[in-house]
What does this fold into?
Amino acid sequence: NGRPGWAAACAVVLLLAVVDLCVITYRMRQGAHYQPGRDIPPYEPDHGDGRPHGPGHDVDGGRPDQGRTGPSSGRP
It folds into this structure.
């Protein structure tokens, strides 16, 4: 008789793995400049020379108040 419950569970896992592999392959073929939607800003590659990575980014990577305040900043 076998175990139809286990066979069904393994078939579902196999199906999910195959679908996941297909999605990964599809996205990899789109390349590094894939944009998931209109609400996501355009990809700006790292230039490797210290230039800012795009509009709205400070030297510290765009994080607010990172390294500018606090007890180690030298301010009273």
The mean pLDDT is 74. The helical segments are 4-30. Residues 4-30 form the longest helix (27 residues). Residues 1-32 form one domain.
